[in-house]
Design brief:
Length: 295
């Protein structure tokens, strides 16, 4: 039956896509900002995260006044299927698990479909020399050059799954400044020990995907279902699979009801205080970007 469905989908998609649906791959003509996979080396308390992305986005009228993101760029510029222009940068960063203090939850509702959303985690590491450092993990569809997202394709084996490990300014600014998306930031109640276990589990999954690619699936293997699996692995059955997971635009409401995030009054009040777009704009290119969006 499964083989029959694959054949049927292949016929609908055409010859090029027919070959694609047969097996996931890490060897395709990837969009530049998703061409490099992250992975981590863990040795005792030390974690070295390879290929942390920190793209510089710019262009058009969406650029905030006075922001000069292209100064000093060495790699030239790229443009993806949405028209976003950016400079792609990656580096390796070393952290101590003992410095991991907490984890935050981001939710980005889809425009016109608020019941659907993109979700991300951001890990906070104490820094002896200044403000905490934040490392964000975004589970995404890995797109090829010229390819754009469509929900139906996500259920037709048209995208691989990717863990983007990135600088917080990268994954937030591209959404607040250039895609005009609404972004909500919630502080979770995870203890340092829970955050450390979660981080190790997330990095392990990134390592798996770097070796064994998987297809993204709009319903069963997406950003939110992966985050739920991570949480349930460190705390079995902590989150139940219901419509809040299948419709991740409600995932923040679920986190509120389950006591996973810090409450600021009612859920409506908590959500209103979690909205960070204005804060992100006010410190778009400032060094303390991560601190500013949490004030």
């Amino acid at each position: 039956m499964r083989a029959f469905l694959l054949i049927a989908v292949s016929l609908l998609l055409g010859c090029q896509s027919a070959a694609k649906v047969m097996a996931p791959s890490n060897a395709r003509n990837w969009a530049p900002e998703q061409a490099v996979l992250p992975y981590a080396e863990i040795s005792g308390d030390e974690v070295k995260v390879h290929n942390v992305r920190h793209c510089q986005y710019f262009g058009g009228t969406d650029l905030a006044p006075g922001v000069d993101t292209v100064a000093g760029a060495e790699l030239g510029t790229e443009e993806d299927a949405t028209g976003e222009e950016f400079v792609v940068n990656h580096d390796d960063r070393t952290y101590r698990l003992s410095d991991l203090r907490g984890v935050d939850f981001f939710m980005v509702p889809f425009e016109g479909m608020p019941s659907l959303a993109h979700t991300m985690l951001s890990f906070e590491f104490a820094n002896d020399d200044g403000p905490p450092e934040h490392l964000t993990v975004s589970v995404e569809t890995r797109k090829e050059v010229g390819e754009s997202y469509a929900a139906w394709k996500g259920s037709a084996r048209q995208y691989e799954l990717m863990y983007v490990v990135a600088d917080e300014r990268d994954v937030i600014r591209v959404r607040t400044h250039f895609r005009n998306e609404n972004v909500y930031l919630y502080r979770t109640k995870a203890t340092p020990e829970q955050a450390q276990r979660l981080f190790v589990d997330v990095m392990g999954r990134a390592n798996e995907l770097a070796v064994h690619p998987e297809f993204y699936n709009t319903v069963t293997n997406n950003c939110t279902t992966n985050l739920v699996r991570h949480i349930n692995r460190i705390h079995p059955k902590r989150i139940k699979y219901d419509y809040h997971v299948l419709l991740p635009g409600y995932s923040d409401e679920l986190a509120y009801k389950e006591g996973l995030i810090e409450k600021e009054g009612s859920f409506a009040e908590t959500k209103a205080k979690a909205y960070i777009n204005a804060k992100a704009w006010s410190m778009a290119d400032g060094r303390d970007f991560s601190e500013a969006i949490r004030r």
